[in-house]
Amino acid sequence: MDEKIAFKTFEKWSKNQQVCLANLFPTVQKKEAVHIDLSIENTTVKTEAEFNNPAFFSEKLAEIQQQHPNKIITGGYLEKRALYTSAIYNAENSSEKRNIHLGVDFWLPKNTPIHAIFDGTIVCSVHQKDHKGYGGFIILKHTFSAIEFHTLYGHLSENSTLKYKIGDFIKKGTDIGVLGNYEENGKWVPHLHFQIMLSLLDYQNDFPGVALESEIDYWKHICPNPNLLFKSNVL
Questions:
Q1: Of 164, 158, 89, which is closest to residue 124 (Cα–Cα)?
Q2: pLDDT, tens digit (0-9, with 9 covering 90-100), for 160-206
Q3: CA separation (Å) from 155 to 28, 193, 195, 228?
Q4: Are 213 and 99 in contact (CB under 8 A)?
Q5: Cβ-count burial of 1 within 10 angstroms (0-12 exposed, 13-18 middle, 19+ buried)?
Q6: Is residue 15 within 8 Å of 215, Cβ to Cβ?
Q7: Cβ atoms within 10 Å, residue 55
Q8: Looking at domain 3-230, what is its CATH homologous superfamily?
Q9: How many Cα atoms occupy the beta-carbon half-sphere of 76 within 13 Å?
Q10: Among 105, 136, 70, which residue's Cα sits nearest to residue 226?
Q11: pLDDT tens profile 58-96
Q12: What is the 3-state secondary structure (H, E, C) of the chain?
């Protein structure tokens, strides 16, 4: 199916869906979100060095969390960032850097349980060793009468990827795994990278979480805004 037709089909289907943050994070007991800006123009972490310093960035997140104790810090869909310094973000045939974020980040502590928001089947469960990669990540395939799509859960613990095997059916509400620590989640401050994909294209055991700005129109139809499901006024 053409990516734009698939996108329109998903967009129409999602109008009748309502996913709460509590479905994804039932143990966190926070139902609302607060947005954090990590774009190139952000004033929270102004340099790559600040972002890549886990102690500094964690302190900034703690300050925001203290100001909003009952909300989950989140954001990032189609955000242009200057944070992707690892060679894995280099384009193969271009000097352009992949810097457009295709998912939503939820900044929560390590070991936070992540639960399935729909019934689905495990199609990928891998622990990447790449610096600034996903660390542990799982992809679920969801099939409904009107639509088929995938959800990606990135920066999980290594043990989370051993919990299930490919082909396992996961019921909505099932504990998928937990957020990994800095050493096992790709060397990131703990958070969940959540992404929707209407196609896995030709990828196996991987899928881009960041894209080239020059290809943004293509990728936003492959990876629609997760807020089509969450319907938050701040995501």
A1: 164
A2: 999 999 999 999 999 999 999 999 999 999 999 999 999 999 999 99
A3: 17, 7, 12, 22
A4: yes
A5: exposed
A6: no
A7: 7
A8: Glucose Permease (Domain IIA) (2.70.70.10)
A9: 23
A10: 105
A11: 999 999 999 999 999 999 999 988 766 555 555 666 666
A12: CCHHHHHHHHHHHHCCCCCCHHHHCCCCCCCEEEECCCCCCCCCCCCHHHHCCHHHHHHHHHHHHHHCCCEEEEECCCCECCCCCCHHHECCCCCCECCEECCEEEECCCCCEEECCCCEEEEEEEECCCCCCCCEEEEEEEECCCCEEEEEEEEECCHHHHCCCCCCEECCCCEEEEECCCCCCCCCCCCEEEEEECCCCCCCCCCCCEECHHHHHHHHHHCCCCHHHHCCCCC
The pair of structure tokens assigned to 224 is: 């629609």
Question: In Å, what is the CA distance from 96 to each residue of 99, 129, 175, 201, 205?
Answer: 9, 24, 38, 22, 24
Contacts of 48-56 with CB under 8 Å at 24 or more apart are: 48/82, 48/83, 48/85, 51/83, 52/83, 52/85, 54/182, 54/187, 54/189
C-alpha angle with apex 12: 6 to 14, nearest 5 degrees? Answer: 100
Q: Are 155 and 105 in contact (CB under 8 A)?
A: no
The structure tokens listed for 144 are 């409904």
Strands 32-35 and 71-75, how do they pair? parallel
pTM of the model: 0.94
Contact between residue 212 and residue 148 where contact means Cβ atoms under 8 Å apart: no
Domain ranges, ordered by start, for the chain: 3-230
